[in-house]
Amino acid sequence: MKRKRVQRWLSTVILGGYLLGVYRGNVALWKDDDPEPMRIFPCSVITLPLDVRQALLAGIRIETEADLQRLLEAYLS
User: Is residue 21 within 8 Å of residue 59, measured between CB atoms?
Assistant: First the structure.
């Protein structure tokens, strides 16, 4: 995913309790405790390194916009 696309998408999100994880085999983002992801990314977790897959399966709590941007760029580029 290109940096501009990530930044444009992030500009529409106000962080306050997000979780990055796996939904149907793809990287996904949830808001608060919503059972359905707010965004599913076209990135299959099987293509990611094992340690990243394990972290995503456990769920990665996102505290800041900078953390979300960094993780998305790392996982989706």
Answer: yes
Judged against a pLDDT cut of 70, whether residue 11 lies above it is answered with no
Cβ atoms of 46 and 29 within 8 Å: the answer is no
* Helix extents (H) in 1-77: 3-10, 50-58, 65-76
What does the alpha-carbon distance between residue 37 and residue 53 come to, in Å, rounded to a whole number? 17
Give dist(CA 66, CA 55) in Å, integer: 18
Q: Which residues pair with 26 in a beta bridge?
A: 23, 44
- With 0.85 as the threshold, say if the pTM is over it: no
**Residues near 54 by beta carbon (within 8 Å), at least 6 away in sequence:** none
